[in-house]
């Protein structure tokens, strides 16, 4: 057992997720979850992917804390998704004020749809069922001739999308597949997710680790979240531990990670640090990394606390870096990472049920 610093703890981040103004209280986007709060503490835009993350995280919160604020979050998020998913998939990001054109709104992304489907999993209200069906139908339209899920399809009259990890088929799609397979979806969509998983599950060590850590960590998350009892999943978890060790070889002297596997000078970002801490803690708890690794994970935890904002959420970059917004998905990842780490420091073993609540 090791001491855990408590200057910022998971309860602080949980309370921010429950009480901060991350859902517009009025207007056409009431209940949608913001990507981040701007410097004035207002939602800059609402975002389907992040709404899905918050719905999944609500199950994580409910394992230890339930009540009216959590139910209001869930009900508002489901109502918003139901309102915007009609005959066609809605824009990726709904800006709530003046904004420059966003290339993300020129396409429909399978990753976002998968996070929405997973977030709605287990919710059996009529709005949740309607939205899940609409999202699943959209995902079916993204199935390629080879049976795998495309990363995206352009919208009509869309401009050419930039070359980004999210627009290029890659190993991060293992998390897309895992999200779909964790939900009770129709057989054709499940088959596409299984085909996608088979394509990417053996990507490493056949290919070199390179590029941005954020999507690489999505791949590792996919290895952990694909389902099945831990005994059945052992080969995947061992592979995840091997990749994780390679990533942690890049850990900096301040405990943080660069945001790129290939460039140690790449400025750290809190979502990457939180993803790594969350993955590493699960691997230690499940016995796939030696328990002594908690000390190195402690460096990640201390670094993650350094992104905390006085408001109670987590910034995307450190306090002295731009942008200065308080980020919702970073706070979700950080809350789960610190909560798991705090319990691991107390000697808690893994509860396999927690895997269904990892955003």
Q: What is the name of the CATH topology?
A: Glycosyltransferase
* Radius of gyration (Å): 19 Å
Our estimate of the beta-strand percent is: 5-15%
Give the overall shape: globular
When the domains are counted, the total is 1
Low-confidence stretches: 1-5
- Residues in helix, %: 40-55%
Number of strands: 7
* Main β-sheet, spatial strand arrangement: 1-7-6
Average pLDDT, rounded to a whole number, is 93
Q: Roughly how many Å apart are the termini? A: 27 Å
The ordered string of helix (H) and strand (E) elements is HEEHHEEHHEHHHHHHHEEH
The number of helical runs is 13
Oligomerization state? single chain
The CATH class is Mainly Alpha
Characterize the main sheet: 3 strands, antiparallel
**Overall SS class:** mainly alpha
């Amino acid at each position: 057992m090791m001491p855990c610093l408590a200057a910022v703890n998971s309860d602080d981040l949980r309370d921010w997720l429950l009480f901060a103004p991350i859902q517009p209280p009025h207007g056409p986007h009431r209940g949608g979850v913001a990507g981040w709060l701007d410097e004035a503490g207002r939602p800059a835009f609402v975002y389907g992917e992040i709404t899905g993350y918050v719905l999944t995280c609500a199950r994580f919160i409910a394992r230890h804390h339930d009540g009216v604020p959590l139910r209001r979050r869930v009900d508002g998020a489901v109502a918003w998704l139901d309102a915007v998913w009609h005959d066609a998939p809605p824009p990726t990001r709904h800006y709530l004020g003046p904004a420059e054109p966003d290339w993300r709104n020129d396409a429909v992304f399978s990753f976002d749809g998968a996070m929405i489907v997973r977030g709605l999993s287990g919710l059996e209200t009529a709005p949740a069922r309607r939205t899940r069906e609409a999202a699943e139908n959209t995902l079916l339209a993204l199935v390629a001739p080879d049976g795998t899920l495309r990363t995206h399809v352009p919208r009509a009259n869309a401009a050419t999308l930039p070359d980004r990890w999210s627009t290029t088929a890659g190993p991060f799609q293992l998390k897309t597949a895992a999200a779909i397979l964790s939900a009770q979806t129709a057989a054709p969509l499940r088959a596409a997710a299984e085909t996608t998983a088979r394509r990417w599950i053996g990507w490493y060590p056949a290919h070199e680790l390179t590029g941005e850590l954020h999507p690489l960590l999505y791949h590792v998350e996919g290895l952990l979240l694909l389902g099945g009892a831990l005994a059945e999943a052992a080969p995947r978890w061992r592979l995840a531990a091997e990749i994780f060790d390679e990533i942690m070889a890049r850990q900096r002297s301040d405990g943080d990670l660069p945001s790129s596997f290939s460039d140690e000078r790449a400025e750290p970002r809190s979502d990457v640090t939180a993803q790594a801490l969350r993955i590493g803690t699960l691997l230690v708890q499940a016995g796939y990394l030696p328990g002594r690794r908690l000390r190195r994970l402690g460096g990640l935890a201390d670094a993650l606390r350094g992104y905390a904002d006085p408001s109670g959420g987590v910034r995307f970059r450190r306090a002295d870096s731009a942008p200065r917004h308080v980020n919702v998905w970073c706070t979700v990842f950080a809350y789960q990472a610190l909560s798991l780490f705090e319990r691991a420091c107390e000697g808690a073993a893994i509860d396999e049920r927690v895997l269904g609540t990892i955003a």
